[in-house]
Amino acid sequence: MKILGIHAQDHYGVGGALRGHEMGEALMRLGHEIIPMDPTAGAWTMIKNGADVDAVVLAGTWHQLMIANSHAQLVADACDARKIPCLWWYGSNGSVFSCVDADPAVRRASENRVIDLICTRKFIGVICPYSIEIYKRHGVPADKMRLVPSVFDADLFCPAMSSYDQRVTARLKYKYGIPSDAFCLGTIGNTPNSKGGDDVLKALALLAPEMPDLHYVILHTPAQLLSKVRAKSPDGLREGKSEADVLQDSKNLAKKLGLGDRVHFIGARFPREAMPMFYRCLDVYCSPSKAENLGQPLVESQLCGIPLVTYKGFSFDFVAAPTAEQIEPSGTVTDDYGLIIPEADPIVLANAIRRARLTAETHKPIGGVNATRVWAYQKFHHHNANKMMAAIAEYKELLHG
Fold first, then answer.
1. Does residue 261 sit in the same domain as residue 122?
2. If phi over 0 gives left and psi between -120 and 50 gives alpha, with beta otherwise, what is residue 327?
3. What is the mean pLDDT of the chain?
4. For a disulfide at 44, which of 74, 300, 308, 392, Cβ 3.0-4.6 Å?
């Protein structure tokens, strides 16, 4: 099948490759052809001018759809006219609803326009159950959505497989001043606290006396690329903090807690192919984020065999490996994969990190495989792109029915 809209281009984001990139590559591996979009003409002109395609998939977020809804509608109308399935494939962590416009009335009017657009479609694809709940909360009918999860390059994101991989990891640790024998927690985010980094810092301060080798590695957007614009509150009366301010606050907190050289702030954008090297520097991935859509690093780290510590809720229950039928008195769910904790509490988080350390030390990948790796591989391997093809087939059937 010839598919337009999902393109395989490189992405230097701290969170890994774009969903569209991964899905495009996965579909090509399954034998489908991805038609590159003309950067000048765009999808609408290509479809209107008779481009030889069997389907169109527009990937993005609710926020992008709100901004570019006119173009999305033009593409959809052109596809409908030619009886070509046009699937909008979106995700949302919910926070975007507060950042399109400070005026609640204007924002709600924009949301209503998007909901009206979605209702003109047979259905849209949504990347995880949490995003579906967000859409329903904002008025999108349940029958207008299908779960079409993201896929990941499980061959690229994998544990260290050779002595060469181990040497590269050692060099990366040396480059960023991380002791070779350190036990490393890690977080990836635009700013540390956007993924709960400040909670990890507080937990680290509690653990520091008993774990002298414990370090925390934070990969964030370079400071010069962070926004210095201070956002207004929804009522427009209060001025918030810029991304640059939030990053500095995290650095100040680490200093205040006396963590010194135990915390490594790495402001860099790694090429997608280099991301596995970063994950291999870690022993436990921590993402106690207050809101999350799919959480690419959560999946990528698990594909690299790294246990996960995160908060319960949002998309975490979908992304985090399934837990055993054992609930600790604290409410923490635990197994060989990692831990899902119930609340944003540094003491609970510290206890989870203790348990995760035990997991990491007793379930290291053997021959490139452990329970974490196996689960993530099965759920997010590129063969799961067949779910995208099933959604396209259903859309085509409804379109021609």
1. no
2. beta
3. 80
4. 74
